[in-house]
Design goal:
- By secondary structure, the protein is mostly helical.
- Helices cover about 80% and strands about 0% of the residues.
- It contains 18 helices and no strands.
- It is globular and about 70 Å long.
- The N terminus and C terminus are likely disordered.
- This is Putative sulfoacetate transporter SauU.
- It comes from Paraburkholderia caffeinitolerans.
Length: about 450
């Protein structure tokens, strides 16, 4: 019976629980967009007020990237992700009882706090649960579930709204989020040595050494080393995030206003690129891991997928701008988003590769680029549409940022890790100590003042 139970490895059970978290959290994130028109009608909100409700999520989300990641490094992902999921689950549930715009803004702000630190904390959770050769797949499959959550949110929320109203949708989703927290508490442990189910063989497969988790908690965060090693990854993530936010915010408007799709077809053609992204996320992680296993070259395995993904997205985005056929434009958009999402699992794997035990903080630094893009991209995109009267200019600028991201990705080096920097400093310290070791054997020289000598006065 025990042998049968171990057919499913413990790390894969934990990975499944994390996939569920990404799926639920993304539904909780985008459900407000679906319910927005109904909320506006019931509460009599203006367009500005509704926009304030939408944007309240983004600012704490960006701030909590580094904060949440650092907390997970210091206190462990189990405690931190439990608290964060309780915050966003309670905020989602309470939204169903909101009675004013101020309450809606406050609850969306709380949701941003809870979800802002969740993905960096989940990345830190993989540090001691995923071997190097499976990290790309782990990040790919989890983010595929996130994209799947975004794709099914409109029909899911609308189905609940049709039977009970928009408030019931938030109450139901809040309860589901809190139920996930209970499941996470039962299944997850910070390290394999704390898990009763895992076998010594699986621990060896992961490459975990006893005590690694405790030593990581006691280590001081090397902020300067992390910034030096992660700033380029953060910039690439900004370039990636710029176009992703365009898809998440302006795609329906583009298809309706620029390509002339009616409401009946809008939902289908909006979901099509997102579903292509689901496939791209999983494929990017799998391909990167396979390249590493075949070549043994980690930098090549990561950078090749980054360059191919962003290059493919750029290659399909440019003809989309000039395409005259609306259906062809949708196909180009879907292909562009497919390649764009190929890069996503690699971006989230790089904090694990480069920062190791500091992956929570590093993941937060990296995803800050995405958060900043979320603050700027939708606003700049809308400004350019308003002042040029066309979507071509903002899409062309997005293509230019993709090109910059491709160039920057070529210079990312996974061999220059934070732990390698620390080891180099330890060796240099040991060499310096050895160079002056002969002083330890010399007799100590004691300087004494003669008892009869009077002290000098400053005025003499």
């Amino acid at each position: 019976m025990k042998e049968h139970a171990q057919r499913v490895k413990t790390r894969h059970i934990i990975l499944a629980v994390m996939c569920l978290m990404y799926f639920i959290s993304y539904i909780d994130r985008v459900n407000i967009a679906v319910a927005g028109p109904l909320i506006r009608q019931e509460m009599g909100l203006s367009t500005v007020q509704l926009g304030l409700v939408f944007s309240a999520f983004a600012y704490p989300y960006a701030i909590m990237q580094i904060v949440g990641g650092w907390l997970s490094d210091k206190f462990g992902p189990k405690l931190v992700l439990t608290v964060l999921s309780l915050i966003w689950g309670a905020a989602t549930l309470a939204t169903g009882f909101a009675g004013s715009v101020a309450m809606l803004v406050g609850l969306r702000f709380a949701l941003g706090v809870g979800e802002g630190g969740a993905f960096p904390t989940a990345t830190r959770a993989f540090t001691y649960w995923m071997p190097v050769g499976e990290r790309g797949f782990a990040q790919g499959i989890t983010h595929s579930f996130a994209r799947l959550g975004g794709a099914i949110t409109p029909p899911l929320v609308l189905a609940v709204v049709a039977t009970g109203g928009w408030r019931d949708a938030f109450i139901l989703l809040g309860i589901v989020s809190l139920m996930w927290t209970a499941l996470y508490l039962r299944v997850f442990t910070n390290s394999p040595e704390q898990n009763r189910r895992i076998t010594p063989e699986e621990t060896a497969e992961i490459g975990y050494r006893k005590g690694d988790c405790d030593r990581a908690k006691r280590a001081a965060t090397p902020w300067r080393k992390l910034v030096r090693r992660m700033w380029l990854v953060t910039f690439v993530d900004f370039c990636y995030g710029w176009l992703l936010w365009v898809y998440l915010t302006w795609l329906p408007s583009y298809l309706k206003e620029s390509r002339g799709f009616d409401l009946k077809h809008l939902a289908l053609f909006t979901a099509l690129p997102l579903l292509a992204g689901v496939v791209g996320d999983t494929l990017g992680g799998v391909v990167s891991d396979r390249l590493f296993k075949w070549t043994g070259r980690l930098r090549f395995a990561r950078c090749a997928v980054l360059v191919t993904g962003m290059g493919g997205s750029l290659a399909f985005l440019l003809p989309m701008v000039s395409a005259s056929n609306p259906m062809l434009a949708v196909l180009f958009l879907s292909a562009s988003f497919f390649f764009l999402e190929i890069t996503n699992p690699v971006l989230w794997t790089l904090p694990l590769d480069i920062a190791g035990k500091y992956a929570g903080t590093a993941g937060g630094m990296m995803n800050t680029g995405f958060g900043i893009a979320g603050m700027i991209s939708p606003v700049v995109f809308g400004y350019l549409i308003e002042h040029t009267g066309s979507y071509n200019v903002p899409f062309t600028i997005s293509a230019g940022l993709l090109a910059l991201g491709i160039v920057a990705a070529l210079f990312i080096d996974t061999s220059r890790t934070v732990e390698a920097d620390e080891e180099r400093e330890r060796r240099m310290g040991a060499q310096e100590a050895g160079a002056f070791a002969f002083l330890d054997g010399m007799p100590a020289v004691r300087l004494e003042r003669h008892t009869l000598r009077r002290p000098l006065r400053w005025w003499r």
